[in-house]
Amino acid sequence: MNKAAKIMGISFPKFTMDQCLQILSDVAGRKKTELFHVVTGNPEIVMSCQHDDELRGIIDRAGLITADGIGIVMISRMRGGDLPERVTGCDLLIKLLETGDREKWSFYFLGADEPTSLKAAEVIARKHPNVSIAGRHHGFFKEEEEAKIVEEINAAAPDFLIVALGAPYAERWIHKYRNSLNAKIAIGVGGSLDTIAGKVKRAPEIWRKIHLEWLFRLIKQPSRWRRQLILPRFAVRALFYREKS
């Protein structure tokens, strides 16, 4: 059985991207029972779980947690956890779309602004013609509109519900409706639709290979500096965190 690496009390299974894809392929191929919630766990989520019991409960209940960020992987290795690689929301979504093109999976996309949502759907339809785009809705909705969105998702009955509302809001939203959503798998993917639509440029592959994607994003979006202050705080706290047995 695959063991997990603990980061500040959160258990990250030691799965590679290929293993995660296999797990999700198996779930997508089964008859729906309950919603399978995938959390792409980044340092921000891990830090929030330290003082937010509700979020911690959501994460603990997830069907799968992936290591979204090199910081998670590096801390794991420094503490002997040895996570094999990072599995980010963006990379996972891209791989799922590639696999979905072969398997003819259906997707519902929730998130981003309306022009970005529309553009992302157009790009996906062009690159992956065998993927069924069961529906989409922008992420700038009011609470009173949520019931209608859930109805629309349920009518579409997608294999994958892709929620691009940002962490940890996406995780809370999925959990809020997990017992009424007619989808097999729900995944929070951060700003991945912005990347697919071309609104945000992703770091070149060489930057990703040397684990400096975060720096590339900071250079391109200097306004992110406040958000990225959490990274050194996470590194220090996680490195010296005393895990409970």
UniProtKB/TrEMBL annotation:
One of its GO terms (biological process) is cell wall organization. Coiled coil: none annotated. It comes from the Bacteria. GO terms for molecular function: N-acetylglucosaminyldiphosphoundecaprenol N-acetyl-beta-D-mannosaminyltransferase activity. Its EC number is 2.4.1.187. Pfam families: Glyco_tran_WecG. The keyword Magnesium does not apply. InterPro entries: TagA_TarA, WecG_TagA_CpsF. Pathway: Cell wall biogenesis; teichoic acid biosynthesis. Keywords: Cell wall biogenesis/degradation, Glycosyltransferase, Teichoic acid biosynthesis, Transferase. PANTHER family: PTHR34136, UDP-N-ACETYL-D-MANNOSAMINURONIC ACID TRANSFERASE. This is N-acetylglucosaminyldiphosphoundecaprenol N-acetyl-beta-D-mannosaminyltransferase. It comes from Paenibacillus contaminans.
